[in-house]
Design brief:
15 helices; 5-stranded parallel β-sheet; 482 residues; 3 domains; FAD/NAD(P)-binding domain; 7-stranded mixed β-sheet; alpha/beta
């Protein structure tokens, strides 16, 4: 039995702690915030018309089999999951609307109806390639350690797999090669943002992301996705995990080339194993200074600007998730990765048809826009600058109005969450949504000293709820049972 300390109680840290405790280890989780969940946050707002409840992080769960396996390993059942159809409603600049779904045949028919038979035929060809990329990724990458680019290149992929992942090609290049309709290219480009990346630089292998979403579906948890953290916390009681909130780790201590504990306040908590669920940038900059591991972590990932809205009445034309695309997607990427809020951004709107999260006769809106990270200097924006957040919130609502959804006279409550807010509440450097590494290849799960492991969205295999849950499985496997 090892003494394990998990630093950070995001979903990756919670899942890893539960797996290790189920394997017989003695586990303590330290979380600097007063609540667990990390970026899987929630907000409750009480108003005269009733109570609004918002997920302030992920609003869509994919790959439900990952969570079935997780709860099978730690005991208990995962929270109830409700399938979404459409998974996402896409509203294009010309007014065309395309609803995605988890049935490939039905989705192809929807493409034909919305965009024409040539677009549908192109998507079918891309879909076959994306399926091969997914199979190779699932078999060889997502559930095993990948410690370096050389290790990734050295995997025993077959020739057909290499053709599918198209090494050296970008996701944008793949779209241009396979898809004639610019709207389908726009849809494909969006999936690069799932990893915090620019589609013009992101690898073509990310075509596996839409394949996974549209093969296994998108799911909602009644009451909000933050109930996933609640379910994990419930398992901690039975497994004997100690959770200490409001305790910030300031340093990881080492001796003889291996971890010896963590410093909390003025004391050291001994540990045989330390699992870091903080961002890799924070780990290697502050907790265990390792300059050579900082390269490429700071400036490569998207941040998010969020509006939480209480809206009176019901809004026609919206699905659970609706994406409103801009006329010029490249102009948006140029702005965001150039350190400027985009004047005409893609707008993501989530409106759950769930009585548990809204007053009767009202809607709880989560509105997300991709933005530059918070900070000072190249590629960043100081989101604490007076007046900036409010002015940009007004701009986002004006963009929605121009795209046919004007709710400005029905907003009864508005709260703005900037990248600076996410940095302060979840410890995400710059407010990076998917971890500072961005893209496909993340820092390895095994740290530079013995007994140190990394879990969560900033490490392999990447950001998003299923990926951080998979990282927990990888780390637990590396540590092994007691």
């Amino acid at each position: 039995m090892a003494e394990v300390v998990v630093v950070g109680a995001g979903v990756g840290g919670l899942a890893c702690a539960a797996r290790l405790a189920a394997g017989g280890h003695r586990v303590t989780v330290l979380e600097r915030s007063t609540v667990v969940g990390g970026k899987l946050g929630r907000r409750e707002v009480v108003r005269p018309e009733g109570t609004y409840r918002f997920d302030t992080g992920p609003s869509l769960l994919t790959l439900p089999q990952v969570f079935d396996e997780l709860f099978g390993a730690i005991g208990g059942a995962p929270p109830a999951m409700v399938p979404l159809n459409p998974v996402v409603r896409h509203v294009f600049p010309d007014g065309a609307v395309l609803d995605s779904c988890a049935d490939p045949v039905e989705f192809t028919d929807r493409i034909a109806a919305a965009l024409g038979p040539d677009a549908a035929a192109d998507w079918q060809r891309l879909w076959r390639q994306a399926g091969r990329a997914w199979d190779a990724s699932w078999r060889d990458v997502l559930r095993r350690p990948v410690d370096s680019p050389a290790a990734l290149a050295g995997l025993a992929w077959r020739l057909g797999d290499l053709t599918a992942v198209a090494p050296g090609m970008t996701l944008r290049g793949l779209g241009r090669r396979r898809l004639r309709d610019p709207r389908l290219r726009m849809l494909l480009d969006r999936y690069a943002t799932y990893t915090g990346a620019d589609p013009r630089r992101a690898p073509a292998a990310l075509a596996a992301v839409p394949y996974a979403e549209l093969s296994f579906g998108g799911w909602y948890l009644p009451g909000g996705l933050a109930t996933l953290a609640d379910a994990l916390l419930e398992r901690f009681v039975a497994l004997g995990v100690s959770v200490r909130t409001g305790e910030a780790v300031t340093r990881i201590e080492t001796a003889g080339g291996r971890v010896s504990g963590v410093r909390v306040g003025g004391a050291v908590l001994p540990a045989d194993v330390v699992v870091s669920n903080v961002d890799a940038l924070t780990l290697y900059r502050d907790l265990l200074p390792t300059p050579r591991r900082l390269a490429g972590l700071a400036d490569r990932s998207l941040a998010g600007f969020v509006l939480l809205l209480g809206v009176e009445g019901r809004t026609p034309g919206l699905a659970h998730h609706t994406v409103f695309f801009p006329r010029d997607y490249d102009a948006e990427f140029d702005a965001v990765f150039g350190g400027r809020p985009a004047p005409d951004p893609t707008v993501f709107v989530t409106v759950a048809d769930d009585p548990a999260v809204r007053p009767e006769g009202h809607e709880a809106w989560f509105v997300l826009v991709n933005t530059p990270r918070h900070g000072v200097g190249g590629g960043a924006v100081d989101w604490n600058r007076p007046g900036l957040a409010s002015a940009y919130a007004d701009r986002v609502l004006s963009v929605l109005a121009a795209r046919g959804v004007d709710v400005r006279d029905r907003v009864r409550f508005r709260e703005v969450l900037t990248p600076a807010w996410l940095e302060g509440t979840a410890g995400a450097p710059g407010g990076a949504i998917y971890g500072t590494a961005g893209g496909l290849l993340r820092p390895p799960n095994r740290g530079p000293v013995r007994g140190l492991f990394l879990v969560g969205g900033s490490t392999h295999p990447g950001g998003g709820l299923p990926m951080v849950a998979l990282s927990a499985g990888i780390v637990a496997g590396q540590i092994g049972p007691a």
